[in-house]
Amino acid sequence: PRYFALIPAAGVGARMAASGPKQYLKIGGKPMLRHAIDAFLFSELIAHTYVVVSADDPFIDSVVPSHGVTVLRCGGATRMESVQNGLAALAGTLRENDWVLVHDAARPGLDEALIEKLITSTGEHPVGGLLALPVVDTVKRSIAGEVGTVSREGMWLAQTPQMFRYRLLRDALAAATDSARDPRQVTDDASAVEALGLSPKLVEGHPRNMKVTMPGDVRLAEMYLATAQP
Ligand code: CTP
Ligand code: MG
Question: Which stretches are annotated as coiled coil (predicted)?
Answer without folding.
Answer: none
